[in-house]
C-alpha cells in the first residue's frame, strides 16, 4: 500500500475516543479497532469515514453475546447455523442446575464419585430397549469411536452409495481413515447387492456398516440391502453390524403423516450390534452422539481412551435428560416435542398466524409493502432429504436493497433470520416460535427508523 494511503489511517488513540466504543472494555475496543484497520489495509484504499462507521458497526455486535436467542424465519426446522433443535423444553432443568454447583457425577448413596452416564443410560434403555449406551460430543465422534474400538487395523465394509459427506466437508472415508480402520467399498453408487458385501468379506473384516444417507437421496434405478439381511450376513460370519442412523428418530414418522425415516427401535429389533446417531436432530436434544448396543460392546467403547477425549459437558447431560424424559409420555409427544410440533403444524394454522402478523405490520408500518405468500419449509439437519412442507410466509418488500435489509435484521439484539427471494424478504411462520413476533416488530422499528 502506498504511503499516501497509509497516512490516511486515523490514529488508534483518536479512534478509542469514538462514542461507539465508550461502553466497551478497553481490550475489546482495541481488538475492534485493530480488526477494522487490518481489513482496511488489505483492501488497499483507506476511507477514514468508512473506518469509523465499520468500527461502530462492529462495536455494536460485540455488545451482545455471539450465541444468543434468534428468530428463525428461514423455514428450516433443523438449521445447523441456528443450533438445530430448539431446547426450550430443557430450559428449566438447565437453569435449575446452573444456578449453583451441579450433581454431575455423584453416587448419592455413598457420596463418592458416581457414573455420569447412568441416568442417561437408564432412560435410553427404557425408551429404546437397548442393552447399554454411551454418549459423546457428536455423531461424527460416535462413528469414529466405534470404528477405532472395533476396526483399528481391520476392514469395514460400506456401500459406495453410503459414502456420505456431512456438513463442513467431513467425509465417511476420512473419518474411517482417522479411526485406523480400512474402508472396503462395495457395490456402485446406485445399486448394492447382498452378494457385494459377502464377496468382500475376508479374514481381516471386522464389521459391516450401514450409513444413513442423511442429506441426499438416490432415486431411480437403485438397490439397497435391507438391514435385516445385512445383520444376518454379518452374524453368519461372526462380524459386527454397525448402523449409523444419522438423524436418529425415536419413532416412526409415518404415524405423523411424514415420510419413512429409519428409526432407532427398528434397528435394535432387527439385530444391529451397535447403533449411533445425533442427539440434536429429530431427537430434539443437545449436540451429542449417542451410541447404543450390546452391553459387552459398549463396555469396550467406554474403556477406549478416546471416550474421555470425546466426553460431553454437563450442559449436554442436563439437556439430553430433559429431552429423553419427553419420550416417557408418548401420547403427548406431539404437544411436548418441539421438533415434532413444528413438523406437524397444520398449514391452515400457520396461515392464520402469519395473516394476523401481516395486519399488525401494516398498521404499525403503513408505508411498508407486505404480503402473505405460500411457501415451502425444509426439515434440514440431514433429515428427510428431498421432503418439504407447505407453509406460509410474510413477504416484505423493503425500501432498501433486500440483501442489505436482511443483513440489518440479522444484526439486531435478537437476530431475525429471513430469506431473500427476488426483491422480497420472507419470514416463514412455520419456524417462528410463539410470541416471537415482538422481536420481529422491534427489529423492524430499528431497521426502518
Automatic annotation (TrEMBL):
Keyword tags: Cytoplasm, Protein biosynthesis, Pyridoxal phosphate, Selenium, Transferase
Top-level taxon of origin: Bacteria
Class of enzymatic activity (EC top level): transferase
EC code: 2.9.1.1
L-seryl-tRNA selenium transferase N-terminal domain segment(s): 6-41
Biological-process GO terms, alphabetical: conversion of seryl-tRNAsec to selenocys-tRNAsec; selenocysteine incorporation
Pathway annotation from the record: Aminoacyl-tRNA biosynthesis; selenocysteinyl-tRNA(Sec) biosynthesis; selenocysteinyl-tRNA(Sec) from L-seryl-tRNA(Sec) (bacterial route): step 1/1
UniProt KW Transferase keyword: yes
Residues that bear N6-(pyridoxal phosphate)lysine: 281
Subcellular location: Cytoplasm
Database matches in Pfam families: Se-cys_synth_N (PF12390), SelA (PF03841)
Alphabetical list of InterPro entries matching this protein: PyrdxlP-dep_Trfase (IPR015424), PyrdxlP-dep_Trfase_major (IPR015421), SelA-like (IPR018319), SelA_trans (IPR004534), SelA_trans_N_dom (IPR025862)
GO MF term list: L-seryl-tRNA(Sec) selenium transferase activity
Gene Ontology CC terms: cytoplasm
Cofactor: pyridoxal 5'-phosphate
Catalytic activity: L-seryl-tRNA(Sec) + selenophosphate + H(+) = L-selenocysteinyl-tRNA(Sec) + phosphate
Family named by the database record: Belongs to the SelA family.
PANTHER family per UniProt: L-SERYL-TRNA(SEC) SELENIUM TRANSFERASE
UniProt function note: Converts seryl-tRNA(Sec) to selenocysteinyl-tRNA(Sec) required for selenoprotein biosynthesis.
Name assigned to this protein: L-seryl-tRNA(Sec) selenium transferase
Gene: selA
Amino acid at each position: 500500500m502506498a504511503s499516501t494511503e497509509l497516512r490516511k489511517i486515523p490514529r488508534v488513540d483518536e479512534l478509542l475516543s469514538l462514542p461507539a466504543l465508550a461502553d466497551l472494555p478497553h481490550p475489546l475496543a482495541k481488538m475492534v479497532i485493530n480488526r477494522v484497520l487490518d481489513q482496511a489495509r488489505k483492501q488497499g484504499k483507506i476511507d477514514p469515514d468508512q473506518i469509523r462507521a465499520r468500527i461502530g458497526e462492529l462495536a455494536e455486535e460485540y455488545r451482545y453475546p455471539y450465541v444468543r436467542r434468534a428468530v428463525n424465519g428461514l423455514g428450516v426446522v433443523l438449521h445447523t447455523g441456528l443450533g438445530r433443535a430448539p431446547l426450550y423444553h430443557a430450559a428449566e432443568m438447565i437453569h435449575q442446575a446452573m444456578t449453583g454447583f451441579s450433581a454431575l457425577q455423584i453416587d448419592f448413596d455413598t457420596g463418592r464419585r458416581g457414573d455420569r452416564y447412568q441416568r442417561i443410560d437408564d432412560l435410553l434403555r427404557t425408551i429404546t430397549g437397548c442393552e447399554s449406551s454411551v454418549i459423546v460430543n457428536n455423531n461424527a465422534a460416535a462413528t469414529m469411536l466405534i470404528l477405532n474400538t472395533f476396526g483399528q487395523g481391520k476392514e469395514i465394509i460400506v456401500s459406495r452409495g453410503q459414502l456420505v459427506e456431512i456438513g463442513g466437508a467431513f467425509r465417511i472415508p476420512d473419518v474411517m481413515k482417522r479411526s485406523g480402520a480400512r474402508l472396503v467399498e462395495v457395490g456402485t453408487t446406485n445399486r448394492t447387492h447382498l452378494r457385494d458385501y459377502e464377496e468382500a468379506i475376508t479374514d481381516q473384516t471386522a464389521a459391516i456398516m450401514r450409513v444413513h444417507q442423511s442429506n441426499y437421496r438416490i432415486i431411480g434405478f437403485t438397490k439397497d440391502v435391507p438391514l435385516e439381511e445385512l445383520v444376518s450376513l454379518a452374524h453368519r460370519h461372526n462380524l459386527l453390524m454397525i448402523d449409523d442412523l444419522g438423524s436418529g428418530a425415536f419413532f416412526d414418522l409415518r404415524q405423523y403423516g411424514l415420510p419413512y425415516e429409519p428409526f432407532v427401535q427398528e434397528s435394535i429389533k432387527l439385530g444391529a450390534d451397535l447403533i449411533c446417531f445425533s442427539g440434536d436432530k429429530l431427537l430434539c436434544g443437545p449436540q451429542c452422539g449417542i451410541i447404543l448396543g450390546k452391553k459387552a460392546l459398549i463396555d469396550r467403547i467406554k474403556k477406549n481412551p478416546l471416550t474421555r477425549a470425546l466426553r460431553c459437558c454437563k450442559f449436554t447431560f442436563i439437556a439430553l435428560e430433559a429431552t429423553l424424559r419427553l419420550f416417557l409420555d408418548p401420547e403427548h409427544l406431539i404437544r411436548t416435542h418441539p421438533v415434532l410440533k413444528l413438523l406437524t403444524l397444520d398449514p391452515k394454522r400457520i396461515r392464520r398466524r402469519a395473516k394476523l402478523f401481516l395486519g399488525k405490520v401494516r398498521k404499525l408500518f403503513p408505508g411498508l409493502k407486505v404480503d402473505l405468500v405460500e411457501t415451502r419449509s425444509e426439515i434440514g439437519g440431514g433429515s428427510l432429504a428431498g421432503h418439504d412442507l407447505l407453509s406460509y410466509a410474510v413477504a416484505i418488500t423493503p425500501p432498501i436493497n433486500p440483501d442489505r435489509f436482511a443483513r440489518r435484521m440479522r444484526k439486531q439484539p435478537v437476530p431475525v433470520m429471513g430469506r431473500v427471494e427476488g426483491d422480497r424478504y420472507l419470514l416463514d411462520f412455520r419456524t417462528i416460535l410463539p410470541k416471537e413476533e415482538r422481536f420481529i416488530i422491534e427489529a423492524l422499528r430499528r431497521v426502518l427508523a
